[in-house]
Specification:
Layout: H1 4-11, E1 16-20, E2 35-45, E3 49-58, E4 70-76, E5 88-92, H2 115-126, E6 144-149, E7 154-159, E8 165-168, H3 174-182, E9 186-188, E10 195-197, H4 206-210, E11 241-242, E12 246-247, E13 260-265, E14 281-286, E15 294-298, E16 311-320, E17 336-342
Amino acid sequence: MTSPLMLRTRVNNPERVFLNSSDDPRQNGETGFSQFTCTFQTPILGARRTQLLRATIPNALVNIPDYQLCFFYYNLPTATTVPSSTYLKCVRLYPSYYLVPVGTLATVNRYFSDPGDFVDTLNDAAGVGGDNIANNPYWQAGDVTFTYNPTAKQIAMTGNTAGRYYAIAGWADPNVTTAINSQTIVMPNYNGVGSTAQPLVPNYTLNLRVGFAMSGFSTQPQVNLGANNNPLYANIANVPVATGGLIYPDSFPNLVYSQCVYLLANVVAGSGMGSNKTNNLLSVIPVNSPQLGITQYVAATINWLTKVPDTIYEIEIQMRDDANQPYTLPDNAQVNIEMGFYYKDE
């Protein structure tokens, strides 16, 4: 006859626990998921430590997050005009999931095979049929053109309107932040009734993905101090560029959705902490697969997390990206997580 202690050891003290996102029945009523919960028939009792052993996460996403699709720049009347919201312009892509209503001009985010492919879509968005000023009050048709240099591996921008001067708007520019928070860049609803605000996150603009990485508060090391410099001209030399001149970037295009996937778990609250103010960090998974590939992670070292509940009936996993936004996968993607548990005090 099996003793209660032996029963507890065999049934309630598993050393390895496997979690599959498809085993969460609550996923059935949602489109896509960034978290899932697995419930156990018998609880895990008396665990003292846990750690992530293995993770398999599909990289089934577009290259650029759907909350980072607005490119901001300035169209200025003179070379000395101080940038303000009056002169702020925006080229935007609509989210990848957006259904374009009949009669709406829109350029939709998608998978990009390379920077040249990305530039083609940027120029579609900037062109006459790329958007509508009623939906994007910062848009000006045909005002700019993007060019990819395959030798330098960089994307430059050129202003097209005669007699104007152009500058990039930094990702932390107060005018950009105000434009993002105002929610005036909208998407007409597919049923023709009303509109929905473009999903945007402050400090995460499409500029960073194109390769214009200056904040709007910094100057270049070789800035010409005798010229009309202003950090708000967030491009090389911190000066505006006349119509027809190339505005060169300070970095390279970034078509990687997220460098890491941050896994949060309800059973390790207090054990793991991140600089993004999360307090239930299970592990950080480097994305080692190409777009549309599968990220495979196996823990190389023992790193026990010790603040574990005595009784565990379910484990909830949340996935976040580099911007601390939900890492949302489609329903046909399966996430597999394997965790180790240890039951002795030492």
